[in-house]
Design a protein that fits this description.
The protein is α/β, with parallel strands linked by helices. Helix content is 43%, strand content 15%.
Amino acid sequence: VTALVLPAGNVTSAEAAASTQQGTVRWWLLECGLEEPQFDELLPAGDSAPEAAVADAADDLDSASIVIAADAVAGRRLDTALLATFIGCPLVIVPE
C-alpha cells in the first residue's frame, strides 16, 4: 500500500502539514491492520498539481484503489471531480 501525502497550499506550513498528514496516514493504515513494512508514503513535488500527482502515482504503481483523506477535499487542496477523470480505479474518501 502506498499513501500519497499532498503538499499544503501555504509553502511556509508545507513541512508541518506533510508531517501531520503522514502521521494521520500511518495511523489509518496501522488501524487497518497493516504493519510499517507493508506501506509507504509518497510526497510529490510542490510544484505539481495534486490531481496530476495522485493520478501519476496511481498509474505508475498500478493501484487498485486510491484513498484520500477528507481533509484534502474539504480544504480544497484536491479537486476529486477532476481527479476522477484521470484515474482508472475506485476513489475512496475517508474521514480524518
